[in-house]
Amino acid sequence: MKQGFRSAFAIAKKDLRTELRTKESINAAASFAVVILVLFSFAFPLERDEFYAISGGLLWLVYSFAGALIVNRGFARELPNDCLDVLIASPAPGWAIFLGKAVAAFFLLLIVEFICLPVFGLFYNIRWTDSFGQLVLVILLATWGITVVGTAFSAVTVNVRVRELMLPVLLYPMIIPLLIGAMGLTTALLSGESSSADNWDSFRLLIAFDAIYTALALYLIDFVLIV
Amino acid sequence: MHAVAADRVWKYFGDYPALRGADLEVPKGSCLALLGRNGAGKSTLLRILAKLSKPTKGEVRIDGAIGYLGHGIGVYDDLSAYENLILFGQLQGVARPAEAAIEALQRVGLERVKDGMAREFSRGMRQRLAVARAFLHHPQILLLDEPFTSLDDKAIAVLQTLLVGALRDGATIVMSTHQIREAMELATNVALLERGKIVHAGPRTQDMLLDPGWLYRTYGESSS
Prior knowledge:
The complex is a heterodimer of chains A (227) and B (224).
Chain A: H1 2-22, H2 24-43, H3 48-76, H4 83-89, H5 94-124, H6 132-156, H7 163-174, H8 176-190, H9 197-225
Helix pairs in contact in A: 1-5, 2-3, 2-5, 3-5, 3-6, 3-7, 3-8, 5-6, 5-9, 6-7, 6-8, 6-9, 8-9
Chain B: E1 2-13, E2 16-27, E3 31-35, H1 42-49, E4 57-62, E5 66-69, H2 81-91, H3 97-107, H4 123-135, E6 141-145, H5 153-168, E7 172-176, H6 180-186, E8 189-194, E9 197-203, H7 206-210, H8 214-219
Parallel strand pairs in B: 3-7, 3-8, 5-6, 6-7
Antiparallel strand pairs in B: 1-2, 1-4, 8-9
Helix pairs in contact in B: 2-3, 3-4, 4-5
């Protein structure tokens, strides 16, 4: 178990190091997310209050688009030189390989999200700093959900020729409950409704989603990696 | 005592049986040359032994840590040689990965370029890095899929030296190859795979060493 966590840490560190060197997916995801935010701000000429009403939906649509770009590289990064074979042949258990990749994708997506947040505030004239602590909690929970499901599907589609298309097709329907919770919570927090009972239900939904899909992915990953 | 054993292993790709009840036993400390023509099932069998693929039927038993050298070099282009080996040392549970990495780089003659990115290396240097990676943790079992193919002279010499050393230290080697002459010099045992079945397995004899084609003529399909 301890060696498994060490392996997961080594894989996460390797993925972060290679990504921060090449900036292959982080540049693409960050610029794509910022461009979408800017385009939406021109596409929907709404009043300030109306923007608040759709703020959560808008933000999480952009984050989920960026998330697909980030997680898509997760296992695809192992394809050149057959590195995935070497990982699987090592004593590192499948769950450790998965966990390392999910953790790396989580941090990469967080970087993109925190780059987008000021852009979002600026172009939509929305104050996001008032409930910053709770907003960060929502971002952490929902981002983990996106990356854990996305990384699992990245493993499923790694050998598929059209994986860039397949992954979003599989990912988005699966994370609908997570997005509903995150969008509702974010809208409520940005609108200043930080303590309603619905919010706690949404928090519980995010926690349950993360727990269930993390457990499922860790348990099932061996069946996906070794065929 | 066998370090590697395959018991009636079948592997289907769709309807196509790549392996058809392959049986294999490799004694500890021996070097098995797994021979066969293209498509005979050598790589499939090695992938199953390396737990990269599941057999459709049958089972395999592996007694020891594996070092695997496949068709790809299995190193990351955007990491330095040193970083690559430290990573694989950590994955293999090596006690001091940094020291093991330096030692492995010295063995393959890459210690002077340890901080160079793998993508900047020549083909021969990349191959030697792959060899260093496979031998890094002093595995008890080496599974090598056509290890001599497209290696330059220096890499072949390095690999042969490491293989001889590993055998001397008691490691077990299973290598598939088309380079029969190089393989026969190292092999203590041979197995011939034809259309997914082992048609001959036994010690490497003097006949095979003197005439590498003898095995195919005697036991291969063309013999019947």
